[in-house]
Amino acid sequence: MKLIFLDIDGVLVTTNSLTPSDKYFGHTFDKTCVQNLNEILNFTGAKIVISSSWREGRTLVQLQSIFKANGLEDCVIGVTPSFNGETIRGAEIKAYIDSFDGIESFVIIDDEESMGNFESFLIETDFRTGITKSVKNEVIRRLMINPTV
């Protein structure tokens, strides 16, 4: 299985979409970022694991509902464990990977976090633009070359 470890703020929520909306449990996602992520998912067959701080205080079902309300259906399969900010996000991702069998390839899409030993899997976004066409192309390239986990 191909996995995308996904941050939300600065990746799907950008300066273009910072309008609070109770309907979507917070901020709506940037429509261009959603379109680019849907293209990634459709092309690669990848699934999403939420590594964002949005996973804290929300259930997996709530996160799936937020994604569905923003045009991303049936793509979120899990969340990384939270070590309460005591460690870098890369360690939380490693803990998820260690507990999950069958990963062919993965990438991390994030706008600011340190990934430690997983730095080479990071595709960094800009908070202003999130998942752009160039980020989309890089994610697809990396997921399809099947890097060793």
Summary keywords:
Rossmann fold; HAD-like_sf; 149 residues; alpha/beta; two-stranded antiparallel ribbon; FCP1 homology domain-containing protein; 4 helices; five-stranded parallel beta sheet; globular; 17% strand
The figure for the number of domains is 1
What do the pLDDT scores average to? 90
Helices, by number, come to 4
CATH topology annotation: Rossmann fold
| Amino- and carboxy-terminal Cα gap | 11 Å
Strand and helix order: EEEHEHEHEEH
Beta-strand residue percentage: 15-25%
Main CATH class: Alpha Beta
Largest sheet: 5 strands, parallel
Q: Can you describe what's shown?
A:
The radius of gyration is 14 Å and the shape is globular. It has a five-stranded parallel β-sheet, with helices on one face. A two-stranded antiparallel ribbon has the order 2-3. It has 149 residues and is an alpha/beta fold. It has one domain (2-112): Rossmann fold. Helix content is 31%, strand content 17%. Helix 1 (31-44) packs parallel to helix 4.
SSE diagram, text form:
Elements: E1 2-6, E2 20-21, E3 26-27, H1 31-44, E4 47-50, H2 60-69, E5 76-79, H3 89-98, E6 105-110, E7 122-124, H4 133-144
Parallel strand pairs: 1-4, 1-6, 4-5, 6-7
Antiparallel strand pairs: 2-3
